[in-house]
């Protein structure tokens, strides 16, 4: 049986929407008529995402981070309670409030009932379930601990969302200050400076260099803004194109790790993702080589990914995990030391969780420090720019006043 999305009208004329299971669209329409409904649309739930007409309906729709965490948590609870996977997916479909989530769960259930693995069913929806999510699910199915893996995956998603929100909120104020400062400077250059310049033009007074330079900049802002905007977009496109190449991207990521302030943030963020994923896979009993490979795929920095691949080679040759990661000289020493302690006590999973939590707190602290440093610097920069503009306007006035006296 497959999952079908339907739209039908009841005897009172009200339009009803939902998902039903049937062998075919014709059988689905028969079910609706048996319930006293007049079917308008009966189609495969998955077709809503692939048909030309339905692609417009699905435009912009996907699972939010919050919905992904909730679905994962609920599914883990149902599986741990002993409910089969297909019935668990059916429960999630029935209790989902949003139509898209309901249809998504029904579509995945239809794939599972049809004989596909859960990870393979999720691969039909890459926008909702990224590669690492599907890799962890596949590992859980392989080891027979899908419920445990999903439970820890839900913890990881929730912690990752919380960390991301804190980082975004921390940088929101500096971003707002920057936008306001840019707007104020643009207004001064495009309106105030030209108005004052007209006064001095009629006097045929020789203007100071600072004023002449400011007038030239004002003219560019008023008449050449389109060129600046086009150049900005072209530069952004060119940079993105260059960074899509393996060589330049690797060189950029290597530089990023050593960049002042930003380097520690990038290293910390990737370390949190790596340690969390490795902890989830370790708890599920996934072999260390496969776990390292999957955890390495979560890294957004290519230079760190190459170091993990080197560590995989060393582990395959018989080296311990702590020694292999320590030789990379990339991950924080605390992570290496905690893994070494876990290897000595036989509890690497707990140590990986502690390393992830500790690095997450450190990343949050560094983010707060950076934003607290940026705020006064932005205010000083804005004040400096406004001071230059004021000086450019006031200097001719002062000279004119001296000439009058």
Note the topology.
Blueprint: E1 2-9, E2 15-22, H1 25-34, E3 38-44, H2 52-58, H3 65-80, H4 85-95, H5 99-113, H6 118-122, H7 131-143, H8 146-203, H9 209-223, H10 225-243, H11 246-258, H12 262-283, H13 288-296, H14 302-316, H15 321-327, H16 333-345, H17 348-404
Antiparallel strand pairs: 1-2, 1-3
Helix pairs in contact: 3-4, 3-8, 4-5, 7-8, 8-9, 8-12, 8-17, 9-17, 11-12, 12-13, 12-17, 13-14, 14-15, 15-16, 16-17
Main attributes of the structure:
405 residues, mainly alpha, 3-stranded antiparallel sheet, 17 helices, 3 strands, 6% strand
Instruction: Assign the structural class, choosing from mainly alpha, mainly beta, alpha/beta, alpha+beta, or little secondary structure.
Output: mainly alpha
Largest sheet: 3 strands, antiparallel
Order of helices and strands: EEHEHHHHHHHHHHHHHHHH
What percentage of the residues does DSSP assign to strands (E)?
5-15%
- Sum up the overall morphology in one term: flat
Overall mean confidence score, pLDDT: 82
What is the CA–CA distance across the termini? 97 Å
Note the total helix count: 17
**Relative helix content:** over 70%
Strands, total number: 3
Radius of gyration: 30 Å
Report the uncertain regions. 47-60
The largest sheet has its strands arranged as 2-1-3
Oligomeric state: single chain
Domain Type II secretion system protein GspF: 72-194, 274-396
Organism: Paraburkholderia kururiensis
Protein name: Type II secretion system inner membrane protein GspF
InterPro entries: GspF/PilC, T2SS_GspF, T2SS_GspF_dom, T2SS_GspF_sf
């Amino acid at each position: 049986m497959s999952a079908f999305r339907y739209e039908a009208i009841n005897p009172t004329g009200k339009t009803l929407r939902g998902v039903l299971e049937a062998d075919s669209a014709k059988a689905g329409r028969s079910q609706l008529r048996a319930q006293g409904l007049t079917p308008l649309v009966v189609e495969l739930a998955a077709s809503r995402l692939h048909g030309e007409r339905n692609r417009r309906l699905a435009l912009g729709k996907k699972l939010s981070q919050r919905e992904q965490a909730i679905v994962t948590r609920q599914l883990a609870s149902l599986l741990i309670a002993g409910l089969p996977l297909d019935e668990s997916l059916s429960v999630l479909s029935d209790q989902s409030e949003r139509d898209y989530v309901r249809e998504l769960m029904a579509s995945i259930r239809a794939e599972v009932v049809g004989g596909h693995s859960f990870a393979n069913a999720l691969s039909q929806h890459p926008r909702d379930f990224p590669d690492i999510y599907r890799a962890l699910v596949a590992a859980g199915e392989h080891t027979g601990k899908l419920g445990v893996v999903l439970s820890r995956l839900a913890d990881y998603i929730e912690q990752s969302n919380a960390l991301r929100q804190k980082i975004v909120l921390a940088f929101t104020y500096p971003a707002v200050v920057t936008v306001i400062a840019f707007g104020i400077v643009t207004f001064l250059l495009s309106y105030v400076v030209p108005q004052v310049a007209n006064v001095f033009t009629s006097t045929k007074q020789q203007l100071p260099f600072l004023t002449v330079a400011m007038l030239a900049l004002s003219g560019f802002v008023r008449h050449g803004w389109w060129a600046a905007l086009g150049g900005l977009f072209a530069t952004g496109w060119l940079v993105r194109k260059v960074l899509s190449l393996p060589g330049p991207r690797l060189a950029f990521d290597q530089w990023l790790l050593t960049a002042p302030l930003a380097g520690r943030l990038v290293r910390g963020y990737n370390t949190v993702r790596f340690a969390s994923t490795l902890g989830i896979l370790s708890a599920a009993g996934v072999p260390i080589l496969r776990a390292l490979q999957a955890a390495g795929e979560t890294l957004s920095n290519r230079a760190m990914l190459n170091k993990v691949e080197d560590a995989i080679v060393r582990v395959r040759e018989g080296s311990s995990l702590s020694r292999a990661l320590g030789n990379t000289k990339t991950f924080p020493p605390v992570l290496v030391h905690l893994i070494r302690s876990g290897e000595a006590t036989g509890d690497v999973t707990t140590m990986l969780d502690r390393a992830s939590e500790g690095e997450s707190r450190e990343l949050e602290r560094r983010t707060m420090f950076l934003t607290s440093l940026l705020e006064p610097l932005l205010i000083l920069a804005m004040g400096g720019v406004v001071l230059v503009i004021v000086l450019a306007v006031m200097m001719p006035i002062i000279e004119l006043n001296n000439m009058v006296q």
